[in-house]
Amino acid sequence: MTRLGFVLTAILGLASIMAPAPVAAQDAAGVTGAGEAIFSAGATLSGLSLSGLTLGQGVSFAQDGSATGQFQAVLYGTSLLGARQAVTVEGEVRNGFAVGLGSATFSGTATVDMGDGTPPLPGVPFTVTASTGSLGLILGATALPTAAVTAGSITIE
């Protein structure tokens, strides 16, 4: 081995010994859950009178405010003509944060299928505020009333 090779090997060896050990990752914050919830009277979306929803979510929060995960919901309602209708929301989460263990807020964009035969709407912004017993949802410019969880659970870590 040449003198230069020996010196470089020694420097790299010392650097690896003296480098700080990786810091253990902090517990990841997030929201998981699946369940059913009911809306109070007067909940509407695009003329559809909503009664309740089913939901599924799995979201992990980073310390910088970014988040990754999925949010799915099916909103159940009745059209102006009296027909039962199911609106499907499939969202990709991009941002979010937890407030202690009591609630969390996350947002992203979703594809919304109104369930009436019209093409699904991609890129609809959404925001969810979740707690262990309730779920608030904003779709586009429509803020729906908070829905009370009646079955299943929402866990915030």
Record keyword descriptors for this entry.
mainly beta, single chain, 1 helix, globular, disordered N terminus, 157 residues, 10 strands, Porin
Q: Structural class, from secondary structure content?
A: mainly beta
CATH topology: Porin
Number of domains: 1
Largest sheet: 8 strands, antiparallel, barrel
The low-confidence runs, each spanning 5 or more residues with pLDDT under 50, are: 1-26
Instruction: Give the terminus-to-terminus CA distance.
Output: 54 Å
Our count of helices gives 1
Alpha carbon gyration radius: 23 Å
Q: Based on the coordinates given, report the CATH architecture.
A: Beta Barrel
Mean pLDDT: 84
Arrangement of strands in the largest sheet: 1-3-4-5-6-7-8-10
Overall shape: it is globular
CATH top-level class: Mainly Beta
The amount of helix comes to: 10-25%
**How many β-strand stretches?**
10
Following the backbone from N to C, one meets helices and strands in this order, namely HEEEEEEEEEE
Q: Beta-sheet strand percentage? A: over 45%
